[in-house]
Amino acid sequence: MARLDTQQKLEILADAAKYDASCASSGSSRRDSRGGKGMGSTEGMGICHAYAPDGRCISLLKILLTNSCIFDCHYCINRKSSNVRRARFTAQEVVQLTLNFYKRNYIEGLFLSSGIIGSSNYTMEQLVEVARSLREDHDFRGYIHLKTIPDADPELVRQAGLHADRVSINVELPTRSGLRKLAPEKDDKRIEGAMKDMKSSIVDARDARRKYRSAPRFAPGGQSTQMIVGADDANDGAIVTRARTLYDRFGLRRVYYSAFSPIPEPSAVLPLTRPPLMREHRLYQSDWLMRFYGFTPKEVVATTDDKGMLPLDIDPKLAFALKFREQFPVDVNRATREQLLRVPGLGTKAVGRILASRRFRSLRLDDIARLTVSLKKVRPFIVTADWRPTLLTDRANLKALLMPAPAQLDLFAPPPANAA
Q1: Phi, psi for residue 336 in degrees, rounded to 5
Q2: Where do the domains of the chain lie, and which CATH numbers do they carry?
Q3: Is the predicted pLDDT of residue 101 greater than 70, yes or no?
Q4: What is the pLDDT of residues 120-141, one digit of tens each?
Q5: How far apart are CA 363 and CA 323, in angstroms?
Q6: Which keywords fit this entry according to its UniProt record (predicted)?
């Protein structure tokens, strides 16, 4: 096999890392190099392809240590039986790449994952060595996210938490049956055991920091996980329920959803087409409802169809309001925060503004228009001092009234700003 230079390795291993979505950095502790000590900084807003409030794009170096792997997971393009071009970095090559990219102001951190080479312990040792060298040898203070390996020795996983801002352990698939079918070499009990150990270590470290200021930080950004959507037959109801269980049991900071993407030379057990990307988007919206809007998994699942799938044409919050119309309309001048959060079109910031404003005056419909982005979606579900929807909330065609009007696309129109 021809020897690859660093640029060729980077091309292969950066492309191989694009399938991993769990690389945001919210929640990491703030560090900087003011005072002439150390190198780099970390920012709590997020790093991987995120945008700060002032419009700055914040990015990180997202690569695999290697795309070689001893496992043969059906859904993975880097599986043992896949006919892809292989490459491998040494730990020091990753360290130098990270430092060089940072010095050129290309990145503010590192997201590092890897295929399994030799053994789980050997691979985990290499990942930890990258983080250790950056922190201890080069005093790097930027963001580091390590993808850990559940089968590795718990002490190695603990070492990852001592050097990384965030760690993640992928559950891979939503159901146990799906994991057994598509990744038979992986075990859901070992994965959950590793997540449980990580949670305990994070909690212990936080307790120690409260008592002793000199206690080391341990994964201050917490842990996250990722589920592949559409590779098996799990429906949205099962995925939502599984995600809530993971949040509750392991104190996860985030659950990421990655729509299955067909790979070259696929296994016969995989679907031939990818699920609609809107399905992934709806799952993220349902995740937000549970995390920030007080919805229970049972309430989110209640919005699914007879096949357990979330509607693709409307968001799950609107689907809930249309299905449970007896809970609406709500009086914006009297309703609790929990009731307001269930109104379609009202986000957490808008609800906060409403609660603050109504302390000084009785809110009218014009006031709500100034406090929200879209009054059209809100009107059928609220009562104000000068507005009552009367029969509007109960109209049979309310869904059609709230959906955006169809528009013919222009063949020669420029692509939208956020197009890939």
Answers
A1: -75, 165
A2: 6-275 (3.20.20.70), 324-402 (no CATH)
A3: yes
A4: 999 999 999 999 999 999 999 8
A5: 27
A6: Iron, Iron-sulfur, Metal-binding, S-adenosyl-L-methionine
Per-residue model confidence (pLDDT) at position 57 = 53
Determine the distance from the C-alpha atom of residue 42 to the mean position of all C-alpha atoms in its chain, rounded to a whole number.
19
Asked if residue 176 lies in contact with residue 63, where contact means CB atoms within 8 angstroms, the answer is no
Kindly state the helix (H) or strand (E) to which residue 86 belongs, with its residue range.
none
Q: Return the amino acid letter for 140.
A: F
Strand 109-113 with 61-64, pairing: parallel
In a 10 Å sphere around its CB, with 0-12 CB exposed, 13-18 middle and 19+ buried, how is residue 114 labelled?
buried
**Residue 46 φ/ψ region, left for φ over 0, alpha for ψ in the -120 to 50 degree band, beta for the rest:** left
**Cβ distance 101 to 5 under 8 Å?**
no
Q: Cα–Cα distance between 29 and 41 in angstroms, integer?
A: 10
Tell me the one-letter amino acid at 258: S
Contact 262, 294 (CB under 8 A): no
Residue 24 is encoded by which pair of tokens?
């945001």
Q: Is the Cβ–Cβ distance between 228 and 258 less than 8 Å?
A: yes
What does the DSSP 8-state code read for residue 410? P
* Structural contact between residues 280 and 258, judged by C-beta atoms closer than 8 angstroms: yes
Name 297's bridge partners. Answer: none
